[in-house]
Write a structure and sequence with these properties.
Blueprint: H1 3-10, E1 28-34, E2 37-42, H2 48-65, E3 70-75, H3 80-83, E4 96-104, H4 111-126, E5 134-138, H5 146-150, E6 157-158, E7 163-164, E8 167-168, E9 171-175, H6 190-202, E10 209-215, H7 222-230, E11 235-241, H8 244-259, E12 264-270
Parallel strand pairs: 2-3, 4-10, 4-11, 5-9, 5-10, 11-12
Antiparallel strand pairs: 1-2, 6-7, 8-9
Helix pairs in contact: 6-7
Length: 278
């Protein structure tokens, strides 16, 4: 008996209601073998009743495969990987009271539209003609859309040290769309994307804000992880549509924030119905 053979046994246990097993989902966190004693740590991040089901199935499978071994299945209350995740510095965007990420699992669900309209709505509450108290950071480096959704956006200004974000509809906004020609695709990989996000936080003169909305790219790529690891988010909003594929990808996106200890504030089911014209 070794770790590989233990994982092979556990890989036959499907995680309901999906057709994938608990090993593929990355739920088996620890496998410890000490003589004739086997201890397996599993974290599902779901309700207790499902934990009890997984614990029973795993224990029965291990006992059947290794009858001469004392098998112990421990359902972990916390994900060890989440506990080891980098903690964002409280100094990052310290003058912004609330930092809300808007994310989605897939493209085309209206995430950026929700993010921009949410920022506009908050601007009606907090901003005035002299002071913009709401910010929007477009973190989608490859497909920035804030400049399109806001329409005519003033030009960026800089004093050589800091970039001053333009204000549109009472919202201070920064986007890669302001820095790169629309006709030029960005062929950037992880480190460059992470660097761009850091520049948006440290090199932009945001000032004191009541709230900042982070429009994240779809999926669970480098930009999403970078924001969750470097910015002390107040919470995240997941945008999806009323179909099974979008719901499943939204669930995967939500799991990223849970692993980073970011609270899910709510889910927006966009385009849920069509209102016919009179």
């Amino acid at each position: 008996m070794d770790k590989e053979s233990v994982l092979k046994v556990l890989s036959k246990i499907l995680y309901p209601p999906y057709q994938k097993d608990i090993v593929t989902f990355g739920m088996v966190k620890e496998v410890r073998i000490d003589g004739d004693t086997l201890a397996v740590g599993i974290y599902t991040g779901v309700k207790k009743d499902k934990d009890e089901l997984i614990e029973r199935l795993a224990r029965e499978a291990l006992e059947a495969a290794f009858p001469n071994v004392h098998a112990h299945v421990i359902m972990l209350e916390k994900d060890p990987a989440a506990a080891a995740a980098p903690t964002p510095s409280a100094e990052t965007l310290k003058d912004v009271k609330l930092k809300i990420a808007v994310a989605s699992g897939k493209v085309g669900v209206g995430k950026s539209t929700v993010a921009v309209n949410l920022a506009r709505a908050f601007a009606r509450i907090f901003s005035d003609s002299e002071n913009a108290r709401v910010g929007l950071m477009d973190c989608d480096v490859h497909g920035p859309s804030a400049t399109i959704l806001f329409g005519e956006v003033p030009q960026l200004l800089s004093d050589g040290e800091k970039i001053f974000p333009p204000v549109t509809d009472g919202v201070k906004t920064i986007s890669m769309g302001m820095l790169v020609d629309d006709s030029q695709p960005l062929i950037w990989r992880g480190p460059m994307i992470t660097s761009a996000i850091k520049q948006f936080t440290s090199d932009v003169a945001w000032g004191e804000l009541e709230i900042m909305i982070f429009d994240l790219p779809p999926g669970t790529g480098d930009a999403v992880i970078s924001v969750a690891q470097t910015i002390p988010l107040s919470g995240a909003i997941i945008v999806t549509t009323a179909n099974k594929l979008a719901e499943k990808t939204a669930n995967r996106g939500a799991m990223i924030f849970e692993k980073m200890n970011v609270k899910i504030l709510g889910v927006v089911e966009n385009m849920a119905y069509l209102q016919m014209p009179d």
